[in-house]
Amino acid sequence: MSRILVVDDEQSMREMLGIVMRKEGYQVVTADSRSQAAAVLGKQAIDVVVTDVRLPDGDGIEILRHVKAATPETIVIVMTAFGTTETAVAARKLGAEAYVQKGDLDVDELKIVVRDALANRRLREENVILKREVGQLHGLDRVIGTSAVMASLFEMVRAVAPTSSTVLVTGESGTGKELVARAIHGLSSRSDGPFVSVNCGALPDTLLESELFGHIKGAFTDARQSKKGLFEAADGGTLFLDEVGETSPPMQVKLLRALQERRIRRLGGTEEIDVDVRVIAATNVPLEDLVREKRFREDLFYRLQVIPVRTPQLRERREDIGLLAEHFLEKFGREMGKRVTRISKEAIALLERYSWPGNVRELENVMERAVALETSSAVQPERLPDAVREPGRTDSAPLIGPGFSLDAHLRSVEARLLGEALEMAQGDRAEAARLLGVSPRSLRYLVQKHAAQPELSNKN
Prior knowledge:
The chain is α/β, with parallel strands linked by helices. The protein has 4 domains: 3-130, 3-Layer(aba) Sandwich (Rossmann fold), CATH 3.40.50.2300; 147-312, Rossmann fold (3-Layer(aba) Sandwich), CATH 3.40.50.300; 313-397, Helicase, Ruva Protein, domain 3 (Orthogonal Bundle); 405-460, Arc Repressor Mutant, subunit A. It contains 19 helices and 18 strands. The strands form 6 sheets. The protein has a 5-stranded parallel sheet, sandwiched between helices. The longest helix is centred in the N-terminal third of the chain and has 26 residues, at 107-132. Residues 393-397 have low confidence and may be disordered.
């Protein structure tokens, strides 16, 4: 329900406009002066301001200037009983939606102005979201696979999508958790609404709180104007919380409250804002383990895991490797303008034997590199990384034997992939984190953990 602030020193005008706007279904707040209007604007989110020009302690043009500086999306309509061309021009230049004469005020016309202005603002907001999603398909057409485990995943997605339940998508990094979340959204009744995603592990608490819940002007040093959060931006649609396991205990409390009450409060504000949002969360770390370690709230875990969906590892669906590799070949060939049209049998055999600890994301990176380096029409084995071509990593040459240590082997694989990511990213840690599908915080931990490994000696 949109909220309108009516500012006028005449009580009869305030009451009349209040009655008219409430009948239209709006919430109405009134103020009789510039200072009282400023107090209301500092405490509440206002969608439309209807203000008189002449007020006891100033004028409506100053209110207009203040509102547009603090919250540019707020609609302002200026009224006056003593109109001049100069005032009308000034109001329009400052962003007033309309400038009307009180003497011959047409209430029906004012209702139309307010209704149309709110509709246009909604269209602008939706347009911003749509532009963000250009080129991103919804539904299952972006999730590639014909294996039995993928067929089961598709069946689960189709069953879950029509519900309004919260979903927790689990799986290793690089298995396509966000694609699954988008598919659930695209097949749901909310598909016409926005799909908004945020990586919870990529932001410190203060920034994450502002990103999720928004903030009011002055909430912190750089908060020069009020801002909607992603919960509000996703209203009527889906909010995807990636890496939810990396949120801090204080943030977990705020998330739990938002999920339970379907209400949020902007950072620095006091007003409760209702939101209609479906939440899909994702994690590559078992939340049950974090709950046992007292690092994740048990009540939030159960609130998120109403319906669990697991994305399979690539090594669980080897029959899909060739199909995925061909998809990435076509994608990068088109993007790079290269005529690399196929993958040699020898290269396909190596791809299908590799263990893919980085899952589909690692395969995508390998194919991007191969297409970039290939000079013939077919991807050759030499264009694949050493890790993929190394015989010791194939299924036909088992690693387990005398003196084998799983912990040591996993550390070695982790260090090697970390080194490769840093090399591909040319030392850019943010890009390396993206390539590995981990948060910057997790990457810093991995670099510290493997700092002494030879794989990182020349790359860190």
